[in-house]
Amino acid sequence: xxxxxxxxxxxxxxxxxxxxxxxxxxxxxxxxxxxxxxxxxxxxxxxxxxxxxxxxxxxxxxxxxxxxxxxxxxxxxxxxxxxxxxxxxxxxxxxxxxxxxxxxxxxxxxxxxxxxxxxxxxxxxxxxxxxxxxxxxxxxxxxxxxxxxxxxxxxxxxxxxxxxxxxxxxxxxxxxxxxxxxxxxxxxxxxxxxxxxxxxxxxxxxxxxxxxxxxxxxxxxxxxxxxxxxxxxxxxxxxxxxxxxxxxxxxxxxxxxxxxxxxxxxxxxxxxxxxxxxxxxxxxxxxxxxxxxxxxxxxxxxxxxxxxxxxxxxxxxxx
Length: 319
Hints:
- With 319 residues, the protein is an all-alpha fold.
- It is 77% helix and 0% strand.
- The longest helix is centred in the N-terminal third of the chain and has 32 residues, at 6-37.
- The chain is globular.
- It starts with 5 loop residues before the first helix and ends in a 5-residue tail after the last helix.
């Protein structure tokens, strides 16, 4: 018979889910790179991954018999979220990874918590800027500048355009987060996930069939593997884990999964694709993570304390 207290067991599961979510989202950049390098066009890859993810979410929602909204307004807001929080960032990241490393993509899209701060302060009356938050945003943006390696004399170079697209994806995620806090309320967590992915799928399919030829996609091991991984794990399972954590940990603490994305992105890019780990990448990533820690100081401290408690719970006693 196990002597593990219920709270300790729950804490252990939540921490495992937190680490798993970081891996699922962090590894997505690797599989996007594999997919585009294997010949998948951006909108086509986004369409197929969302199709797989939507089918998984639809199955879960149907099995749980989740109730759908009965008025039109939530569907309108979820349609906006499908564009801002799914289609636009997914498309920008996928397009950008045709000419950038997956590690850099993971790092340049990590500053979402930094970008939420000024946007929320402007749009949400209960969000206030503090010196610590402003310092965190400044430090994080310095890290982004180092990662991009901005040179005013070469703004037209292809890799800079792709890097700016990645920053644009981070901005889109931040706008989506603030929009959701302001307009998407009172819904069971799985409903926004299902409809965001569903709307994103519909828009991606239209764009794919207008501008690309998705039915001519080469069926190879890399393309099939990338779509299945991104759809089942990066889009479907990741949302299930995210909303499980959201219900237990809350939004602020769960958002700190952003710490893990560049770490997984850099490690997997190096181990699987042999992408170089340059000093600028490490310095930029460190500054981005420091900025995230500063703007989320209270949640970061709480997370660190919880981690310390977790270690004490699993460390065997010697007395």
